[in-house]
Write a structure and sequence with these properties.
The protein starts with a strand and ends with a helix. The protein is of the alpha/beta class. Helices cover 42% and strands 14% of the residues. Strands 3-2-1-4-5-6-7 form a seven-stranded parallel sheet, sandwiched between helices. A six-stranded parallel sheet has the order 10-9-8-11-12-13, with helices on both faces.
């Protein structure tokens, strides 16, 4: 099978990770890859059975919709199928299309964008639904939302995300006996659906009741000051030096923070999957997570502690109670079944298998 793959989002944070992890595993399969995107970025992956079609056209652009180069289309349409890790599809593709919708957050939370922004996104969602022979998604929750908002979708297939290679490699010589450091960790961004407001409010209340931990937020403080004044105000009102920002982190640095945190808190209001709790637990770090439907699905068999979504009082009480009798939380050690549940080996194999079955 010859598979054309859109690689233009290779360096993005979430979807880029999904794409890179899949490409590394596609490379070992009986498949020829035709990769569309930046040759400079793609070559860094050192893929052996791949050819590159240089393309710098922006995703979701008018040029992609109406003027995609015929020279590229000619090469793409010689392939057996076209796969995109997102839901942007260039005009002129005549072979079977397999796209990916990770979530339906914008129609589910329209307050995150403008009316025009929502209309634009719904246009691309509907276009992907119409032009895709099958749409991949990352949870049953997301599949339900796709079917709700895009009822004319031909086929969907749930294939879960997995642990990244840098996490898996670190586990080979990892000791679960090491003592944790004295902080709790948040991994996310400043967007409302990540629930950072709930966490900071709960954390500040806990500090007022003798909670002696620090909160580390992965990211740059400047982003919060300039893009979310409400969050910035909450941070400023917290006890001095109790909230720290890590700044930008490399994979190696993030791994260290995940390993050494006493606890990870994921207060999301909405996710398509939600990978940080899985990463943290695989490294022995306990996780407090909101009780949103997708977390109940993904982490059903995992040793997580749930708190009520957007309920800072509930989170505050559970933080205090967790540490009531011990200063540092013990490490957790996932079972073999839990460790093997979500892997990119499974993800990549199922994607290729599904594409073959639907040609």
């Amino acid at each position: 099978m010859t598979l054309a793959i859109d690689c233009r989002v290779l360096d993005s944070s979430g979807i880029g990770v999904f794409l890179r992890e899949c490409l590394l595993r596609f490379n070992s399969q009986d498949v020829t890859l035709i990769l569309i995107g930046s040759a400079e970025k793609i070559k860094k992956l050192s893929l052996k059975n791949a050819s590159i079609l240089e393309c710098n056209i922006k995703t979701f652009s008018l040029k992609e919709l109406f003027c995609f180069p015929k020279t590229l289309l000619k090469q793409i349409n010689k392939c057996d199928a076209y796969f995109t890790p997102y839901f942007n599809i260039p005009s002129g593709i005549k072979i079977p299309v397999f796209s990916t919708i990770h979530d339906m957050i914008f129609p589910d939370m329209p307050e995150l964008t403008s009316k025009i922004g929502l209309m634009a996104r719904m246009f691309f969602y509907k276009r992907a639904s119409k032009k895709s022979d099958l749409i991949f998604t990352v949870s049953k929750f997301s599949e339900e939302r796709i079917k709700y908002f895009l009822p004319k979708t031909k086929k969907t297939k749930v294939i879960y995300n997995g642990l990244s290679k840098y996490i898996i490699n670190s586990l080979e010589n990892y000791s679960f006996e090491e003592k944790k450091d004295d902080y709790i960790l948040f991994v996310g961004n400043i967007k409302k659906h990540k629930g950072l407001k709930t966490l900071i409010t709960a954390f500040t209340k806990a500090k007022q009741n003798g909670f002696n931990k620090k909160l580390f937020i992965v990211g740059n403080a400047e982003n919060f000051r300039t893009k979310d004044t409400e969050i910035a105000s909450l941070i400023e009102s917290a006890p001095k030096d109790s909230i720290k920002f890590t700044g930008f982190l490399s994979d190696k640095e993030l791994l260290s923070y995940l390993k050494n945190a006493d606890l990870l808190v994921q207060p999301s209001l909405y996710e398509g999957f939600g990978i940080p709790p899985l990463e943290a637990m695989s490294l022995g770090t306990p996780a407090f997570i909101s009780d949103i439907p997708v977390f109940k699905e993904i982490y059903e068999s995992f040793p997580v502690t749930y708190f009520k979504t957007e309920d800072s009082d509930d989170l505050c009480i559970k933080l205090i109670n967790m540490y009531k009798n011990i200063d540092n939380l013990p490490r957790i050690n996932l079972t073999s079944e839990q460790k093997d549940k979500y892997t990119y080996d499974k993800t990549a194999n199922l994607i290729l298998q599904t594409i073959r079955e639907n040609l």
